[in-house]
Design goal:
About 80% of the residues lie in helices and about 0% in strands. It has 5 helices and no strands. The relative contact order is 0.21.
Length: about 120
């Protein structure tokens, strides 16, 4: 069994970011109105959950649930991109980083609802 190095984890974040950008681009082009509406609701919910976490309102179970929902949001964007291989590659990046016991590097508060107009309206 190979123990992931710091460089391995950093590289997976670079690949994940590239895959998420491509997912978002394809989602903006291909998603139906219903799918875009669903994503808007998920983004709003995600912002609410992250706000609760930032305020210190949550135990370990809540934190785990929030990160699980965040994962679902990213995977839903990939699903609605219409590219199965993109979904698989993104899933692999999430699993590889999670298996290494890492989480996404802090980037500051970027609301999901701030990102959403570009996805929904191109």
């Amino acid at each position: 069994m190979r123990i992931p190095t710091e460089q391995f984890v950093r590289d997976r974040f670079v690949v994940r970011e590239a895959l998420e950008c491509q997912s978002a681009r394809l989602f903006a082009e291909r998603a139906t109105l219903e799918q875009k509406h669903e994503l808007r609701l998920m983004a709003e919910q995600m912002d609410t959950l992250f706000s609760r976490l930032a305020a210190g309102n949550g135990d370990a179970d809540f934190t785990f649930a929030v990160h699980g929902y965040h994962f679902q949001l990213h995977m839903r964007i990939a699903e609605y991109s219409g590219c199965v291989e993109l979904q698989r590659a993104l899933l692999f990046c999430f699993v590889a980083v999670a298996a290494a016991g890492q989480s996404a590097p802090a980037r500051g508060p970027v609301a999901n609802t701030q990102i959403e107009p570009a996805l929904l309206y191109g």
